[in-house]
Amino acid sequence: MPITLTITEGLLSDEAQADAFAGLTDALLEVSELSGNPFMTANVVGSIHNLPKGHVLAAGKPVDAAFVELKLPMVALTTPEAKRAFLGKATDIVEKAAGGRLKREHIWSNIIYAPEGGWGIAGESYSNADLGQAIAASAAA
């Protein structure tokens, strides 16, 4: 389940970036009630992108900002409460990592869903049912 953290360059140290990404991973697993599931843990992946100052804009003007984008299959975070929980935790995590150098209102998050059968791991297409089976099998192991 890819997470993309995009931030203004220099906003977070390398250590703070790693801590933030680990926190985002833990938040996704926790909200999904899948903490400790080997299949899910191994498949929460992602990237951190640092954009040069002046290349991140709000209202058409340069700002320090952060964006958290989460890509999921349709079977994940299916309730409004789960979505709210993850988005709130994600904002808290990034805000804390920034140590006061980032306004909360300059942290944006979104969740994008892949269509049924549009999820791939290791070159294999997974349906929602396939993912459920892989998660359950991993928990039973």
Automatic annotation (TrEMBL):
InterPro entries: Tautomerase/MIF_sf. This is Phenylpyruvate tautomerase PptA (4-oxalocrotonate tautomerase family).
